[in-house]
Amino acid sequence: MKRPDKTFWSLLLLSLAALPLSAQHKKPQYLQYEDMRPYHFGFFVGLHTQDFQIEHTGAVDENGATWYGSVPSYSPGFSVGVLGDYRLRDNLSLRLSPTIHFGSKTMALVSDQPDCEIVTANIRSNYIMLPLNLRYRGARTDNYRPYLLTGVSLGIDAGRRKKKEIQLKELNTYWEIGVGCDFYTPYFRFVPELKLCLGLSDIFEHNRNEESDAAFVHYTNAFEKISSRLIVLSFQFE
């Protein structure tokens, strides 16, 4: 049997010498026992955009015009909140995250009459929202762990104004879906999250009883339903 040559022994020694070097370069796992805690708290800041889903009646006003509305552009708003997370299982948790969304949107109102000017209605909405979400997390890999979430939220519009072309109701409910990822650092978890909030009810005020509202009756009759939508990008610190 032929004996191994010097090249074989040299390669073997180099492989053995590389083992401790590879072990030294292995990434450390931060906060290894953090996921075993029954609950934890945090806070977050972020950006959002507000939108409407609009259904029209097709009604004709006293001048023979039919009015339509749309949100032609989006402007970013600011979001801030706190959170509490309760561990149900290793990959499942229940999360409560009270949030305030400061923002506005502009609705363009236009009729089907020729040479009609576009009326713009600026609608300020400061939403106080109480989301309760179920969060499903995947397996942890090194120092990150992705997740999906869904749940419902109660929203209160604290910034609505009367005597406007479009009057909205104060209370609303939302269905929320989102994705995110836990990034583990030596001292805390940094969690970017993208969430879509879909309004479940009609927030358009169809019955306006104030005397000043008579000027806006043709807008009021133009809409069958208006529901709210938000897209929220948040950065959480837990």
Walk me through what this model shows.
With 238 residues, the protein is mainly beta. It has one domain: Porin (Beta Barrel), CATH 2.40.160.20. 10% of the residues lie in helices and 53% in strands. The chain is built from two helices and ten strands, in the order αβββββββββαβ. Strands 1, 2, 3, 4, 5, 6, 7, 8, 9 and 10 form a ten-stranded antiparallel β-sheet that branches. The longest helix is centred in the N-terminal third of the chain and has 19 residues. The mean pLDDT is 87.
In short:
The protein has 238 residues and is mainly beta.
Name a few traits of the molecule.
ten-stranded antiparallel β-sheet, 238 residues, elongated, Porin, mainly beta
Radius of gyration, whole Å: 27 Å
Unreliable runs: none
Number of helices: 2
Task: Give the overall shape, derived from the CA principal axes.
Answer: elongated
User: What series of H and E elements makes up the topology?
Assistant: HEEEEEEEEEHE
* β-strand number: 10
Question: In CATH, what is the class?
Answer: Mainly Beta
Strand content: over 45%
The overall pLDDT average reads: 87
Secondary-structure map with pairings?
Layout: H1 6-24, E1 39-56, E2 67-70, E3 77-89, E4 92-96, E5 99-111, E6 119-137, E7 144-157, E8 171-184, E9 189-199, H2 217-220, E10 223-237
Antiparallel strand pairs: 1-3, 1-10, 2-5, 3-4, 3-5, 4-6, 5-6, 6-7, 7-8, 8-9, 9-10
